């Protein structure tokens, strides 16, 4: 399953790496491609889980 999210708060490559690592730790996520303004996830997870994974890093996610 392909999931697409719009991300806010990422400013550099370090932020992209932090977000990628956080998303890859989620159960059901097979792969995560992250840019400064987006995340494309292959696997099964929810917007709520993505938001909870990214919030401690200071990043926000929304559907689409």
Structure description:
With 64 residues, the chain is α+β, with helices and mostly antiparallel strands. It has two helices and four strands; from the N terminus they run βαββαβ. It has helices spanning 13-24, 47-54, and strands at 2-8, 29-34, 38-43, 60-63. A four-stranded antiparallel beta sheet has the order 2-3-1-4. It starts with a strand and ends with a strand. The mean pLDDT is 98.
Helix content range: 25-40%
The 3D shape can be described as globular
Spatial arrangement of strands, main beta sheet: 2-3-1-4
Largest sheet at a glance? 4 strands, antiparallel
User: How big a fraction of the residues is strand?
Assistant: 35-45%
- The radius of gyration is 10 Å
Spatial gap, N to C terminus: 14 Å
Structural class: alpha+beta
Average pLDDT score: 98
Number of strands: 4
| Total helical elements | 2
Helix/strand order, N-terminal first: EHEEHE
Q: What tags apply to this protein structure?
A:
64 residues, alpha+beta, four-stranded antiparallel beta sheet, 2 helices, 4 strands, 36% strand
What's the arrangement of secondary structure elements?
Blueprint: E1 2-8, H1 13-24, E2 29-34, E3 38-43, H2 47-54, E4 60-63
Summarize, please.
This protein has two helices and four strands. With 64 residues, the protein is of the alpha+beta class.
């Amino acid at each position: 399953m392909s999931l697409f999210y719009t991300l806010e708060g990422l400013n550099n490559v370090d932020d992209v790496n932090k977000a990628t690592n956080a998303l890859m730790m989620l159960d059901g996520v097979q792969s995560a491609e992250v840019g400064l303004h987006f995340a494309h996830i292959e696997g099964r997870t929810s917007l709520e889980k993505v938001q909870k994974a990214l919030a401690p890093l200071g990043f926000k996610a929304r559907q689409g």
